Amino acid sequence: MTESEGGAGFELPLLLFAGFRSIIDELHRELTAHGHPDVRPAYGFALQAVGQHGASAGEVGRRLGVSKQAAGKTVERLEALGYVERVDDPQDGRRKLVRLTSRGTEVLLRSAQGFDRIRAGWVEALGAERVAGIEAGLRAMAPANAFRLDAAGWFTG
């Protein structure tokens, strides 16, 4: 591969990961500054898996692609940090439902706002057309189911 065609094949995934990592690290610096120092990247996936309507620990595990036990440990940690709570399921009194607390909802809202600010910084640095081109290219190359919550587990599994 010549320089005019770009770098070596292995560079593309490394650059994509480095871009992803820089965004996540910047977001987590912002979250820390706004009172969420204990939030880890994997917790964002878990909070998304809980969702606005709540979910059982088993459902959280299935959405994340991890065992019920692993999901249970993550839920316990999020509960200890005040991001989720376990309540009786109004549809089935035999099971518990994991629900976002106001703190959990706030961290997801701050995350969304942070991602918007970070993207705006990329637009400022690279230009709107270039960022839109990057996004369009990635959408074209990514599989239809690219936005899966089990991405965090993929790195460790």
UniProtKB/TrEMBL annotation:
GO molecular function: DNA binding; DNA-binding transcription factor activity
GO BP terms, alphabetized: response to stress
A Pfam family matched in the record: MarR_2
Domain HTH marR-type: 9-143
CDD domains linked to this entry: HTH_ARSR (cd00090)
InterPro entries assigned: ArsR-like_HTH (IPR011991), HTH_MarR-typ (IPR000835), MarR/SlyA-like (IPR039422), Tscrpt_reg_MarR-type_CS (IPR023187), WH-like_DNA-bd_sf (IPR036388), WH_DNA-bd_sf (IPR036390)
Entry keywords, A to Z: DNA-binding, Transcription, Transcription regulation
Xref: SUPFAM superfamilies: Winged helix' DNA-binding domain
SMART domains (UniProt xref): HTH_MARR
Annotated organism of origin: Streptomyces fulvorobeus
Keyword Transcription regulation tagged: yes
Protein name: MarR family transcriptional regulator
Top-rank taxon: Bacteria
